[in-house]
């Protein structure tokens, strides 16, 4: 086993998972607390459906693929039971957030609540073979497809027909979700969806001329000269590229893996802060000011997903540039985000790499990106048997 495989595996099992198993379970009302301070104390009890679904997926998946440890399955069922009882409206759409007891707080405007609910229940079905979990995942997935072209529905603030656009985030998620739920979906649907998504990600949102992946384009794929149209999110693009590499392996398309590797490297080089290190959160494709005031923050998930992407790029292609970037991002990430004293990783740094908030979870950060990245990286190196 190589050096990276060893330290990533140790971090996952001895520092990350224990933090969430000890601090996140609401034993009184069900579900998970995600608003956790540095030491794991609960500072807010609201429950966010997309984070609940992600944690159900994480513990179901490690039960399915790493070790059939009953405590992990119990944690997954614990969260799923709360979601099943409280999480959806009458049409089957998943609310964004609930209070501690399960009363809906924020309407189901965010389709990513549905995406991660489907992902979580799909993985839980694999673990339990309980048919109702499969039905929840299937129903939710088909509902996502119905909402695909108008994701927010009646909760959309935009005036219809004025500067229409489509967003990169859903095709990106669907490229992973379609594989996660493949065991529950019709093969023809999965194949058609995969082909459609690969085209969207690699030929619509990615623009060869600029060498960049844009967050928003017009419905016909052309660029928009506006805040939204010039917006880049390097982390999104890089995460999507390891999804594309996974699809390249599944479809036996080396050219897709190679293209994804090149795009991932390009977005990483473009997004890297040469002055202070780390990857910018948001950028403007033309170097103009962004709407997002947090544009220069360094976020945990961006760096976690980059580690996965560069590890896969290195191992699958042997590319030396991918190797160098993996080592560079590894050094920055483990130096700045890891909390050796209290477990888990910090989420939010300022541009200089100093901790902005010492929380370990909240409305947007839960038990997902850090453990998934550690798992994926150690798995990549373990299977490859690379000695470093």
Task: Kindly summarize this structure in a few lines.
The chain has 388 residues and is mainly alpha-helical.
Keywords:
12 helices, mainly alpha, 3-stranded antiparallel β-sheet
Structural features, described:
The structure is a single chain. This protein is mainly alpha-helical and 388 residues long. 53% of the residues lie in helices and 8% in strands. The protein is built from twelve helices and 14 strands. Strands 3-4-5 form a three-stranded antiparallel β-sheet. It has a three-stranded antiparallel β-sheet with strand order 12-13-14. A hairpin with a 5-residue loop joins strand 13 and strand 14. Helix 6 packs antiparallel against helix 7. The model has no long low-confidence stretch (mean pLDDT 96).
